[in-house]
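Submission checklist for the structure archive. All mandatory fields must be present; incomplete records are returned to the submitter.

[x] Identifier: Cell volume regulation protein A
[x] Organism: Kaistia soli DSM 19436
[x] Residue count: 619
[x] Sequence attached
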Amino acid sequence: MIESMYVAILIGSLLVGVAVFTSIFSTRFGAPLLLVFLLLGLLAGEDGLGIHFSDGRVAYFIGSIALAIILFESGFETKSSAFRAAALPALTLATIGVLVTAGIVGLAARFVFGWDWISAMLLGTIVASTDAAAVFFLLRVGGISLRERVRSSLEVESGSNDPMAIFLTVALVGIATAAAGEGEAFLSLLRSFFLQIGVGSITGLIGGFVIVRIVNRVELESALYPILVMALVLVLFAATGIGGASGFLAVYVAGLICGNVRMRQILALRRVLQGMSWLAQIAMFLTLGLLATPSEFGSVLLPALGIAAVLIFIARPVAVWLCLVPFGFSRNETAFVAWVGLRGAVSILLAILPMVGGVSHGQMMFNVAFIVVLCSLVLQGWTIAPVARWLGLVVPARYGPVERVDIELPGRGDHEIVTYRVMPESAVGRGRRIPRWARPALILRDGRSLRFEAAGPLVAGDQVYIIAATEHVRLLDQLFARPADSADASALFGDFAIEPDVKLGDLAEAYGFELTAEEASETVAGFMRRSLAGDIEEGDRVAAGPVDLIVRRLDDHDEIAEVGLALERRAPRRKLPLFQNRREIVAYLKERRIRKTAARAAALAAAVTTMPLDEEQPH
């Protein structure tokens, strides 16, 4: 028994260690790292190195704990501003989008496999939700920078749609194995929905504030705070589940609360949570990979590939388009959101439920879901960056990397100590003076600590400790960051800057293009805001005659503070023939109505002109 314990520890730790080292190669070759974790589990499993693991209940237990940690960390890292900007479209995708996707895939499953409606819809719900771990990793670590609204919508959707898919899957498994009639089953499903989602949300809100309250009031060793938080999160998850509500939704909401309020040891907690989230992802993907038996995939490979094609190219795009039509996303933005519908460990985890619940075709559902996830990670995960560039949605970073370390001060003050390393290409490295309010408290140079007065001008490689107000730290980041590549910066922010209150008519006179009298009286900022329909982010551009006007900087009230002027027009973004938004649909219908009215008027006029005149009658 002791030897078997050591063998289990050895194998488990080796798998985790190898999974960590594979990140080096996956980054180099551009492979989705979570796909590598999953393939590593398959390689170590029954058809690979021969590790036999077939306990679905244990796998579901491990996966549920791991998913709870991942969802809490996902909520913790989501800024309240991002959530507010994307809440409505993201939550629409997380609810209606999941239902539409499940319905279309379920219809395809019934046609392909010939199953009954409950089994077909069960497979649809299993693969209906996007995976938080996959989406967060590829968007945050994948090295692409997107418009904030698009990124936030994808992140909030991936964090909040898992509870919907889990609820539907559990409910359909219950219906498939119950003897209740259809009407009674439907009423039970409706009651369960309001209990799971409603009570789960309320419990998450209360639990988040309770966690913050406890952490801020209890005096502990600093290393114990992350342990306390993780314990409280799992207590919240388990207690909510015991009460019949969605523990997954509760921990995600609690993460949103905890990550956006002042909390003791929050920096240390953030670092520990990131590590715990990585460990949870590795454990979940390895476990699910071990549970699968690739030798059984052959019998369902072609139908599963067909289901994957329906999901990726039909169900997800239709669901996304229907959900985003009211919110003014452009065609390219809608297409990208549709493409980033990554399926991952959650779908495989849900596929365990029919298998262990005794549902007919349960093992087949698991194999189909596994193949669908592999297809999604390979096809979509490997192409997110190229598709974003092809659609013209990649926004180069405004500032290059900055090596910064936050050191939390005790108490609840609004100041913090930040540490920067001076980079040669940064503004400070090129001789820019530091403002008086940001004078360093300490400088480390060549292994020696120096006072600012004695150090002289800062040089590349200096490590600088600064005490600054929290709201000023962003300004310091700009001083100590390496500027973005000059070619990228010029392409993104224009050749030079102009004031936002310049009259558009003066610009037209300078560059020789015509405007209407109304447009000529507008300011540049007003013209841009009207053209962008109020949805403004840094890097947005508007054509004005032969030049492009670009939003260089927004102020604290999201008003345009600086405008860039690009003399050479950038190639226009590709305009897809699909995914029209609400404004385009309304404009098309209006234009069609005008054309019909004009056609009827022309036909009436033609009929009148060709009508024979009555001969004049004698009096």
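[x] Structure attached
Curator remark: Residues 404-480 form a domain with the Alpha-Beta Plaits fold (CATH 3.30.70.1450). Residues 182-217 form the longest helix (36 residues).
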